[in-house]
Amino acid sequence: KAGVTQTPRYLIKTRGQQVTLSCSPISGHRSVSWYQQTPGQGLQFLFEYFSETQRNKGNFPGRFSGRQFSNSRSEMNVSTLELGDSALYLCASSLSGTSGIGTGELFFGEGSRLTVL
Amino acid sequence: GNSVTQMEGPVTLSEEAFLTINCTYTATGYPSLFWYVQYPGEGLQLLLKATKADDKGSNKGFEATYRKETTSFHLEKGSVQVSDSAVYFCALKWGGADGLTFGKGTHLIIQP
Questions:
Q1: Nearest to B43 among A56, A90, A98 (CB)
Q2: Largest Cα–Cα distance in chain A?
Q3: How far is B44 from chain A (nearest CA, A)?
Q4: What pLDDT digit, counting tens, does each position of B34-44 carry?
Q5: Which of A5, A71, B4, B26 is deepest in the core (most CB within 10 A)?
C-alpha cells in the first residue's frame, strides 16, 4: 500500500512569492491534515480537510490556505511568502481525521521543505 | 489551551540501556495521548497510543501509561537499540479540537 506522497520535496522561494504544495493521501483515506514543523515552534497544526471540506483550521494567517479534491488529494498554498515561512510542511492522512470521532492516528508523508530567501 | 511538554534533548544512551522520555500535558477534559516517532529522512509514524486513564500503549518494546493524576504519558523501553535512534513526539487529541497538539520532540541517540 503506497504511503502519503508529498511534492515537491524541496523548494526555494524568495520573499513575496507564493507556493503550492501537494499531498496524495493513502488510498481510501478521506482526511488530510497539514502541519508546519520548525525548530523553534515544533509541529503546529495548519488545517484539516475531510471529503473536500475544511473541518478545522489552526492559528495561522490567511496567507495560508488549502483545498481538497474529490479524489482526496490536497494542496496547500502560501501567498506573499515571508522568511519565517521557511519550514518543513507535513501532510498527514487518515480514515477519519482528528476532529470529532477521528482517532488521531495519522499517517505522515516525508514533507516538503520550503526555504524562503 | 492544550499543550504538551517533553524534554528536547538530545538524549544520548548506550545500547541496551533503559529509556525514559518524559511527557506531561495540559488539556481540558480527557484527551487521547500518542507517541509518534520520526526516523531520519522519514515522516512521523504512530508508535503507540492510549485513549483513557490508566490505559497502557505498547509497541516494538516501547510502553507508555496514561496517568491522569499526574497528567503524564512517559515513554519507556527496557533495552534500547541503535535502530531506536530517532526523534520522538508526544501528542494529544482532545474531542473536536483542532488537530493534534504535539510536543517539541525529543532527539534520541543510541550509541553502540
A1: A90
A2: 41
A3: 5
A4: 999 999 888 89
A5: B4
pLDDT tens for chain A, residues 1 to 117 = 679 999 999 999 999 999 999 999 999 888 899 999 998 888 999 999 988 999 888 999 999 999 999 999 999 999 999 999 999 999 999 886 655 445 668 889 999 999 999
SS3 call for B83? helix
**How many whole angstroms separate alpha carbon A74 and alpha carbon A21?**
8
The residue assigned the cell 490567511 is A62
Contact B32, A104 (CB under 8 A): yes
Name the nearest CA neighbour of A58 among A71, A70, A76, A80: A76
Chain A, nearest residue to B33 by Cα:
A104
> Which of A42, A48, A105 minimises the CB distance to B99?
A48
